[in-house]
Amino acid sequence: MKLFFRDHLALTFIYFFQLAAVILVFCLDGKENGATIGYACFLSTCIYVGYLFFRYFANKSFYQRLSTPLLSLHDLSMKQQAAPLPESFDRLQKNLIHHYEQEIYDYKHKLDHHTQFMNQWVHQMKTPISVIHLLIQDLEDEVKDSIDEELDRLRKGLEMVLYNSRLESFERDFHVETIQLSSLVRTMTSTQKRLFIRNRVYPEIDIDPNIVITSDEKWLSFVLLQLTTNAVKYTANKGERILYRVQKKNGHILLEVVDHGIGIPTSDLPRVFDPYFTGENGRKFQESTGMGLYLVKQICDKLGHQVKIESDLEQGTTVQIFFSM
Q1: In angstroms, rounded to a whole number, what is the distance separating the alpha carbons of residues 206 and 256?
Q2: What is the model's pLDDT at position 198?
Q3: How are beta strands 202-206 and 241-249 bridged, if at all?
Q4: H-type helices in the chain, by residue range?
Q5: For residue 321, what are the β-bridge partners?
Q6: Do both 198 and 264 map to the same domain?
Q7: From CA 164, how far away is CA 226, in angstroms rounded?
Q8: pLDDT confidence of residue 29
């Protein structure tokens, strides 16, 4: 109703202006019969008000649609009214929806094709990495260790690309199961033993073997791998330990990954889960991509796990993952 009045405000102003002009013409012409002039004005106003009522009810669905907040594309539909303006507007909306849905379909098709290509490319790149790893076995230890280190970086980079591309189709690529948390952590740290040995940082696991959680083992293993890689990378002192511990807190099972590294500046903490954000530490460690913690946050959100991070500069960082009991 308000939109209708606003739309016809200028017309109403013009109507009363021309009505006043007509009365003035009658007065200047010497015809000062007030009753006749009043009756003419009353009749003209009744006709104008009747026109406004007719126009409002003829275009009621149009004004209601424009005045109602849009919640989804399905809300665009209007009640059928035999009036040119609502019918034309309804046809326009249907055409816009059709074009929009077609563009969305084309975009999803291209995105699926791109994701499929990325997955195939990552798997193809794993083969030459494995071949290189076999070829360097007879090299001197120092050279072999250097190449192994670069190969590990390549593997982790490819895994990050693979899991990032799979996030869009996460619902089709996860399997909920009961997981023994201590076994999962031990398996992950075992696969990363070269990373620990190379950096002279060692894992310490303090997890009750009886504690189990419900999650996806593959995605959760990737999350722990990212947290472990960060913990090792930012632990400057040799001989330090990365602590994995579990406790029950406020109806949740809390997994903590604790390092004693360089820590994160307080000003950077609110943004550590943003994509491509590297902060002050990223300037010191050029290999930082800013995607590790972003993927951790995205995966935990999709799995229904809460993730938090606490850190003190030069003291270390603690990442907490909350699992429902």
Answers
A1: 10
A2: 85
A3: parallel
A4: 2-7, 9-28, 34-58, 60-67, 84-135, 141-166, 181-191, 193-199, 217-233, 279-284, 292-303
A5: 255, 307
A6: yes
A7: 13
A8: 67
- Tell the residue number behind the tokens 């016809």, with chain if given: 8
Question: What phi-psi label fits residue 200: left (phi over 0), alpha (psi between -120 and 50 degrees) or beta?
Answer: left
Domain that holds residue 22: 2-70
Do residues 315 and 191 both lie within one domain? yes
CA 282 vs. chain centroid, Å, equals 23
Do residues 195 and 229 lie in contact, with contact meaning Cβ atoms separated by under 8 Å?
A: yes
Domain total of the chain: 3
Sorted by sequence, the CB contacts under 8 Å of residue 230 that are 6+ apart come out as: 292, 293, 317
Q: Which residues of the chain have pLDDT under 70?
A: 1, 29-33, 69-83, 85-86, 285-287
Phi, psi angle pair for 288, to nearest 5°: -65, 135
How far, in Å, CA of 264 to CA of 69, rounded? 43
Non-local (6+) Cβ contacts of 261 within 8 A are: 231, 234, 235, 236, 240, 316, 317
- 230: how many CB neighbours lie within 10 A of its CB? 24
* pLDDT for res 212: 93
Q: Which residue has the tokens 């003419």?
A: 40
Across the beta sheet with 306-312, the strand order is 202-206, 241-249, 252-259, 316-324, 306-312
- Among 9, 37, 43, CA closest to 22: 37
Which is it for the CA torsion 82, 83, 86, 92, positive or negative? positive
Q: What is the pTM of this model?
A: 0.68
Q: Which of 121, 138, 168 is the last residue of a domain?
A: 168
CA distance 318 to 61: 57
Residue at which a domain ends, from 70, 97, 129 = 70
Do the beta carbons of residue 255 and residue 323 sit within 8 Å? yes
Best CA proximity match to 244, nearest among 223, 265, 266, 262: 223
Indicate the length of the chain as a whole number.
325
